[in-house]
């Protein structure tokens, strides 16, 4: 469960904390950390963005690669 969420959201720390808190078994911390880390790394190499950034990409917003600032278009203040 933690590995699937980690891969979809690309958030391994959140997935690890959620699984440990829901199960109450702190002995699972190391195996869950390993599984979520591998799942996030594989997801990152196979796809661009998470389930959250994909929705923004469909709207035309790319938060991971912002547009460069336009040179020569300085804001002018009226005085």
Protein traits:
4 helices; 58% helix; single chain; 79 residues; mainly alpha
Low-pLDDT stretches: none
Q: What fraction of residues sit in β-strands?
A: under 5%
Number of helices: 4
What would you call the quaternary organization? single chain
As a percent range, the share of helical residues equals: 55-70%
- Radius of gyration from the alpha-carbon trace, in angstroms: 19 Å
Count the domains.
1
Shape, per Cα inertia axes: elongated
Content-based structural category: mainly alpha
* Largest sheet data: none
Task: Kindly state the number of beta strands.
Answer: 0
First-residue to last-residue Cα separation: 60 Å
The ordered string of helix (H) and strand (E) elements is: HHHH
Average pLDDT level? 82
Question: How is this structure best described in words?
Answer:
The longest helix is centred in the middle third of the chain and has 18 residues, at 29-46. The chain has 4 helices and no strands. Helix 2 (12-23) runs antiparallel to helix 3. 58% of the residues lie in helices and 0% in strands. The chain has one domain (2-58). By secondary structure, the protein is mostly helical.
Give a short synopsis of this structure:
With 79 residues, the protein is mainly alpha-helical.
Topology, element by element:
Layout: H1 2-9, H2 12-23, H3 29-46, H4 51-58
């Amino acid at each position: 469960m933690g590995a699937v969420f980690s891969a979809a959201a690309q958030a391994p720390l959140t997935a690890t904390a959620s699984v440990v808190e829901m199960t109450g078994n702190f002995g699972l911390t190391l195996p869950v950390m390993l599984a979520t880390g591998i799942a996030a790394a594989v997801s990152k190499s196979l796809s661009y963005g998470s389930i959250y950034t994909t929705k923004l990409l469909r709207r035309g917003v790319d938060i991971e690669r912002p547009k460069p600032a336009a040179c020569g278009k300085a804001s002018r203040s009226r005085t």
